[in-house]
From TrEMBL:
InterPro entries: MFS, MFS_Na/Anion_cotransporter, MFS_trans_sf, Nucleotide_channel_N. It comes from the Eukaryota. Keywords: Membrane, Symport, Transmembrane, Transmembrane helix, Transport. This is CSON007770 protein. Residues 374-393 are annotated as: Disordered. The chain crosses the membrane at residues 37-61, 109-131, 173-193, 213-230, 250-269, 276-295, 307-332, 344-363. Residues 375-384 have a biased composition (Basic and acidic residues). GO terms for biological process: monoatomic anion transport. GO terms for molecular function: symporter activity. GO terms for cellular component: membrane. The keyword Transmembrane applies.
Length: 393
């Protein structure tokens, strides 16, 4: 076998395996549901840590604030950009080591330490310590039926120590495409996440209370959309209506080119059209959840044995964009109340969304790569299709 993608298994074998998985599927509340709830709370707190400054900075720099209990800061737009980007300075450098540590020690201890360092995470850490687990095999209070169901769903995975094929990985066209599309996504996503409250305050003229509620609306819609798109993607691929590769590229295109169109529309929203602007922002963020069925699970498609390291690499590169984006916005905006300057911000994000997804459509793949196993051993296609639950971001 050369350095080419592994040929897919037959549709007959896939159908047989789906029938087997359905037969052994346990009923009722199980360990897998407890893990899902704990991970939901984990991500909830992780994202709260990321976005609290985006909302707080609106009040911190509000020159019209008459409340003497809260000090305001006379920060320029460039200074605000530096403050908003500061979270990612440390975030970037931990990505690759974290991927390696997760493969060596398992995800339980890493999540315990990272979330346990914040006050709200202390209660979660206690629950996670007692109820979290690295794998079904290590979990003590799991039924044999549920253990077999989860392990069959996860498919084959080599748990032996494998040397990371750095050169092959970093010179692989699908991996490079993954790095680029992840970076493009983060530029647009974090531009909106960090700057949306400022835009709503200065351009749309919304007060702090309405600003906070409407800034949260797009992300609530994003959550709702992910609950719909995830089973839809699984249905289309599991029933054979779409190939896995086409499905990844289709949903990724929806998740990046959809927001691109919304941002272009937002650039031309007439002054005073608050409802239209909020609607476009909601669309731009909401349908971005489709990327969870695109590039964000593609690491597992390409090399499940190295998915943790791959996520560390792509997330490290992508989060360089996360702190560059607010800095660029601060450089572009001399006057945060000027819609013409915001138009430039939206154009930049739309262009990056377009070209980032275009190269993923051209060069991206969803088949297991030869370097997944030691010395390029022959391997079969993954015995399941990763879904939104496996997108760790």
């Amino acid at each position: 076998m050369g350095k080419s993608d592994v040929v897919s298994s037959s549709e007959k074998e896939k159908k047989l395996e789906r029938e087997i998985n359905t037969e052994i599927s346990p009923s009722g509340w199980g360990v897998r549901h407890t893990q899902a709830v704990l991970l939901f709370l984990c991500l909830l707190m992780a994202y709260a840590l990321r976005v609290n400054m985006s909302v707080g900075i609106v009040a911190m720099t509000d020159r019209n604030n008459s409340n003497p209990d809260f000090e305001e800061f006379a920060w320029t737009e460039k200074t605000q950009g530096v403050v908003l980007s500061s979270f990612f300075w440390g975030y970037v450098i931990t990505q690759i080591p974290a991927g390696q540590l997760a493969q060596k020690f398992g995800p339980k201890i890493l999540l315990l330490i990272s979330i346990g360092t914040c006050a709200c995470g202390l209660l979660w850490s206690v629950l996670w310590f007692f109820y979290g687990g690295n794998s079904p095999a290590e979990y003590k209070n799991i039924s044999l039926e549920e253990k077999e169901f989860i392990q069959s769903s996860l498919g084959s995975h080599d748990h032996k120590k494998i040397v990371t094929p750095w050169r092959a990985m970093l010179t692989s066209a699908p991996m490079i495409a993954l790095i680029i599309v992840h970076s493009a996504h983060n530029w647009g996503f974090w531009t909106l996440l960090t700057e949306m409250p400022t835009y709503m305050k200065n351009v749309l003229g919304l007060d702090i209370k309405k600003n906070a509620l409407l800034s949260a609306l797009p992300y609530f819609c994003m959550w709702c959309a992910s609950m719909v798109l995830s089973p839809l993607s699984d249905f289309l691929t599991n029933r054979g209506h779409l190939s896995l590769g086409f499905s990844r590229k289709l949903f990724n295109s929806i998740g990046l080119w959809g927001p691109m169109c919304a941002l272009l529309g937002l650039a031309y929203v007439p002054k005073g059209s608050v409802e239209l602007a909020v609607a476009l922002l909601t669309v731009a963020v909401g349908i971005n959840s489709a990327t969870y069925l695109g590039f964000q699970v593609n690491h597992i498609d390409l090399a499940p044995n190295h998915a943790g390291t791959m996520m560390g690499i792509t997330n490290c590169a992508a989060n360089i964009m996360s702190f560059l984006a607010p800095l660029v916005v601060g450089f572009v905006l001399d006057d945060a109340k000027n819609p013409e300057q915001w138009k430039i911000v939206f154009f930049i994000s739309a262009a990056i969304y377009f070209f980032g997804n275009l190269q993923f459509v051209i060069f991206g793949k969803a088949t297991k790569q030869w370097w997944n196993s030691p010395k390029g051993k022959d391997v079969e296609e993954p015995q399941r299709r990763p879904s939104i639950a496996e997108a760790q971001y």
